[in-house]
Amino acid sequence: MDTKNFKINAENSTIDWVGRKVTGAHNGTIRIKEGNFIFENQKLQSGKFVIDTRSIKIRDIEDTETNTQFANHLASDDFFNSEQFPEASFEITHAEPGDENLYYVQGHLTIKGITQPTDTSLQIVTTDNAAVLKAKLVVDRTKFNIRFRSSNFFTNLGDTLIYNNFDLNIHLIAEAY
C-alpha cells in the first residue's frame, strides 16, 4: 500500500469567512494553525486541520476602532469564546472519491468544544511533493451554541437579525513529508 502524508503549510493556507445579516454581510479571514492529510494509493483517506479562533480578522470594516470592536465581539462568548476555546477543527472521517479531483467528505467539525457531523465536497490536487485543497463549509452556528441574534432563539430582532449559517472558504496548501 502506497501511503503519502501531507502537512499543511499554515503560512500559505487561508480561510475566508462570510457572515450574513438582514442588512448585509461581513467578511474576513481566520488562520490555520496546523493540519495534515493522508493518501493511500493516491486516494484521500483522512485529514484534519486546526483553526486559530484568536486570529479572526474583518476585511470589510475600514474604521480601525469599529473593526477592533467587532473583532473583539467575535472573540467573545457571544460568538467563538476564543479565550476559552482558542482552537476549532475539522477532521475528515470518510472520503468518497468523485470526478476531477473531487471528494465527498464526512467529518467532525468542532467549535467551542462542541463536535457536530459535517458533510461537504472538496477538491484536492496532489503532486509528488504538494497538495492543494479547496472546500467550502457552510456552518450552522446555532449547533455550536453561537446564538447571538439568532431567530432560532430570539424574536422581534427586525433588522438586527444575524443569519444562522456562515461560510468558510478554505484554501489549504500542504507539503509531502
From TrEMBL:
What residues form the membrane-spanning segments?
Answer: none
Q: Name one Pfam family in it.
A: YceI
The record's listing under InterPro entries reads:
Lipid/polyisoprenoid-bd_YceI (IPR007372), TTHA0802/YceI-like_sf (IPR036761)
Q: Where is the Lipid/polyisoprenoid-binding YceI-like domain?
A: 5-175
Gene3D superfamilies per the UniProt record, alphabetical:
Lipid/polyisoprenoid-binding, YceI-like
Recorded superkingdom: Bacteria
Q: What protein name does the entry list? A: YceI family protein
Task: Kindly list the organism's lineage.
Answer: Bacteria, Pseudomonadati, Bacteroidota, Flavobacteriia, Flavobacteriales
